[in-house]
Amino acid sequence: MNRDDPEGAIAEAAKAYRNWGRWGEDDRLGTLNFLDEGKRREGAALVRRGVSFSLSQSFDMNGPQKGWRRRTNPVHTMLDTGTDAALGTQGFPHGIGGADDVIAMPLQCSTQWDGLGHIFDHGKAWNGRDAGRVVTSDGDLVTGIEHMAPYVAGRGVLLDVGRVIGSDGELPDGFAITEEHLTATADAHGVAVGRGDIVLVRTGQLARARRDGWGDYAGGPAPGLSFTAAGWLHSTEIAAIATDTWGFEVRPNEFEHAFQPLHQVAIPNIGLLIGEMWDLEALAEDCVRDGTYAFWLTAAPLPVTGAVGSPVNPIAVK
């Protein structure tokens, strides 16, 4: 890998791992096609104790966003309150009162999925489509994330790279997670990763941010997947992957003068569903205690018509 030639490395990886046409010219799901009915039955069979974990960060003003590209933390506003009800200003009969609220936020400000319309490669969207005809001011007209809403539920696998490879359960910022690290972690956990799995990679960065403050969590240096892991993402035929970091891949990126090159291969070329800013801490602690790293996972995006990303509250059940 020539660190001074991101363009060449991206082009080579895109050509080697491209899934265009694999599921037909009209495909809207990408690697979610690997997550079929059999895989969901396999995931459901993993429920033994019935204990569940939310893998979502909070959606509030105390989040990590600092305004980069207009990404801000959620703004929560009450429309009706108990005070209004007590004062009798709501106009309802026979003493009934209520509360209503509204939230304003970017769809990728906290725990979220990147949709297939989120990233392009030289003007091409997923499946080789013209990006200008896919995502317009009206939204994603072809691969809007609403199409994925019924399907993101199945066998989840945690790869706690922070504990297996890192020191004190965490990887340092700038640590590039390679295929070898992912494989070694799976071996240490005694868990297999394969077709249709939803893989969760814990680096420990979120735990550090909560301990030390957000700092540059949103967009700054971070552990994450190495660009060289693109082959593993393709060959394992996983349905989706999520991390506890803002950017999924290692930051700073491994090339000079590059920005998120693994995204450029994974989303528009592999067709991979990518999740970011997931809270894997409680789940990881339970996995250590019970020694099992596979579980039922449901993580449906909100069916926001034409959206290129979505908030999500993933639920793991063991």
Describe the protein's architecture and organization.
The protein has helices at about 5-15, 35-45, 80-85, 130-135, 160-165, 180-190, 205-210, 230-235, 260-270, 280-290, and strands at about 50-55, 75-80, 100-105, 110-115, 125, 130, 135, 140, 155-160, 175, 200, 225, 240-245, 275, 295-300, 310, 315. It is α/β, with parallel strands linked by helices. It folds into 2 domains: about 5-70 and about 105-315, Glucose Oxidase, domain 1 (3-Layer(bba) Sandwich); about 75-105, no CATH class. The strands form 5 sheets. A 9-stranded mixed beta sheet has the order 1-17-15-9-11-13-14-4-16. α1 runs parallel beside α9. The radius of gyration is 20 Å and the shape is globular.
Spell out the key features of this protein.
single chain; 318 residues; alpha/beta; 9-stranded mixed β-sheet; two-stranded antiparallel ribbon
Q: Sum up the overall morphology in one term.
A: globular
What proportion strand?
15-25%
Structurally, how many domains make up the residues? 2
Per CATH, which architecture of the largest domain?
A: 3-Layer(bba) Sandwich
| Count of helical stretches | 10
**CATH level-4 homologous superfamily of the largest domain:** Putative cyclase
Strand arrangement, major sheet: 1-17-15-9-11-13-14-4-16
The rounded Rg comes to: 20 Å
Q: How far is the N terminus from the C terminus?
A: 40 Å
